[in-house]
């Protein structure tokens, strides 16, 4: 009898874990002007947006994901001495009452290995993850390779 109670308790706990593990939505951060530059073939795409933090504390972006891509990474492009470089960044801090811009030539979301071809004009769902465990869902507008912004 004691084994049955223990098993029942363990099962109830295991079934309840997914509900406990769900991240809360970020209330402080908002996404504006979100778009993706779609490159031809299997080339990686890049996601751009402006992240606004309306909160009283800085927020640290630690990752992103999308059902449309197998991998999403935070990257930063830079130029020095006429040489362009790109590096992965582990996190990015959005200051309290401030913003961070993801733009060509700077920070961006590197979108690797599209699950299905992403066509310009479609919306692509991304989820941003923050160090405090919160998440933010945002739709990014897919734009052609020659686009320079969300609405050029």
Automatic annotation (TrEMBL):
PANTHER family hit by this protein: BLR7088 PROTEIN (PTHR36302), COPPER CHAPERONE PCU(A)C (PTHR36302:SF1)
Record key words, sorted: Signal
Lineage of producing organism: Bacteria, Pseudomonadati, Pseudomonadota, Gammaproteobacteria, Lysobacterales
InterPro entries: LpqE-like (IPR007410), Lxx211020-like (IPR058248), PCuAC_sf (IPR036182)
Pfam family, one: PCuAC
Segment forming the signal sequence: 1-23
Coiled-coil zones: none
SUPFAM superfamilies, A to Z: DR1885-like metal-binding protein (SSF110087)
Protein name per its UniProtKB record: Copper chaperone PCu(A)C
């Amino acid at each position: 009898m004691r084994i049955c109670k223990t098993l029942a308790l363990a099962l109830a706990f295991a079934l309840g874990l997914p509900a406990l593990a769900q991240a809360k939505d970020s209330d402080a951060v908002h996404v504006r002007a979100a778009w993706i530059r779609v490159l031809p073939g299997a080339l990686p795409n890049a996601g751009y947006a402006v992240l606004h933090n309306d909160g009283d504390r800085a927020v640290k972006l630690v990752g992103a994901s999308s059902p449309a891509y197998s991998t999403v990474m935070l990257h930063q492009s830079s130029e020095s001495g006429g040489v362009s470089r790109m590096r992965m960044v582990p996190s990015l801090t959005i200051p309290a009452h401030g913003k961070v811009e993801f733009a060509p030539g700077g920070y961006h979301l590197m979108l690797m290995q599209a699950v299905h071809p992403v066509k310009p004009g479609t919306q692509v769902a991304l989820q941003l993850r923050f160090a405090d465990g919160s998440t933010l869902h945002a739709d990014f507008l897919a734009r052609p390779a020659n686009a320079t912004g969300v609405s050029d």
